[in-house]
């Protein structure tokens, strides 16, 4: 459990953070946008016309970035268990993405532009290009608790991505380095042709977070 002194220290660091101030001035919903922007500048992931699924999207910073990249013909569908204020051009589904009913809602949304087809055929039609995730569990400060929780979310996101992505699609996810993270990375490499690690400048130096960037979903 975090101490009061620890909470005060975090708040002071947060409000003095140049990325927090920059995000507020630019109208972004979180400092996390600068992590994604740096990766996008380096790796050129998102292009006009693409369909992007943003997992754990609230408050919506990453969706703000990708919706600009896929305009005018692309789609961004954001999912989160928490509510999210609307973003122009972003479709939102509230719920747990690992829940079958939420998956069916997503498939139905993907099929909306193809009303002659059922939602069960939506995966073939939608051609989802990227699944992205900046999710993290509520952290306790104890690695023995936080790492299993984090890896469980990562594993669920990977399973979801493999199910929903088109062949050659991509997957970008935040992972905390520690016990089990190498095994997760090995699993990602089994599913994708190219896998790299990114540590953006906006990611705090003391943080164990990195981003796993996977391209080229292998044929099933």
Q: What is the strand arrangement across the widest sheet? A: 3-2-1-4-5-7-6
Query: What is the overall shape?
Result: globular
- SS class: alpha/beta
**Name of the CATH first level:** Alpha Beta
**Biggest beta sheet summary:** 7 strands, mixed
Q: Cα distance, first to last residue?
A: 43 Å
Could you give the order of the helices and strands?
Answer: HHHEHEEHHEHEHEE
Radius of gyration: 17 Å
Please summarize what this structure is.
With 220 residues, this protein is an alpha/beta fold. 42% of the residues lie in helices and 23% in strands.
Describe the secondary-structure layout.
Elements: H1 4-16, H2 18-26, H3 33-43, E1 51-55, H4 61-70, E2 75-80, E3 90-94, H5 100-110, H6 122-126, E4 128-133, H7 143-164, E5 165-176, H8 181-191, E6 192-198, E7 209-217
Parallel strand pairs: 1-2, 1-4, 2-3, 4-5
Antiparallel strand pairs: 5-7, 6-7
Helix pairs in contact: 7-8
């Amino acid at each position: 459990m975090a101490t009061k002194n620890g909470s005060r220290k975090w708040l002071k660091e947060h409000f003095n953070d140049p990325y927090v101030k920059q995000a507020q001035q630019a109208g972004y919903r979180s400092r996390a946008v600068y992590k994604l922007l740096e990766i996008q500048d380096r790796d050129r992931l998102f292009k006009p016309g693409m369909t992007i699924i943003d997992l754990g999207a609230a408050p919506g910073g990453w969706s703000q970035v990708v919706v600009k990249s896929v305009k005018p013909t692309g789609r961004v569908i954001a999912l989160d268990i928490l509510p999210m204020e609307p973003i122009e051009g972003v479709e939102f589904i509230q719920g747990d993405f690992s829940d079958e009913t939420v998956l069916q809602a997503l498939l139905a949304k993907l099929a909306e532009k193809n009303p002659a087809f059922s939602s069960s055929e939506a995966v073939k039609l939608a051609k989802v290009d990227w699944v992205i995730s900046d999710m993290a569990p509520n952290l306790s400060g104890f690695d023995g608790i936080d790492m299993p929780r984090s890896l469980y979310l990562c594993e669920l996101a990977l399973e979801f991505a493999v199910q929903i992505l088109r062949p050659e699609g991509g997957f970008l996810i935040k992972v905390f380095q520690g016990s089990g993270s190498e095994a997760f990375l090995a699993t990602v490499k089994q599913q994708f042709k190219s896998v790299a690690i990114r540590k953006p400048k906006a990611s705090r130096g003391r943080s164990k977070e990195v981003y796993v960037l996977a391209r080229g979903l292998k044929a099933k």
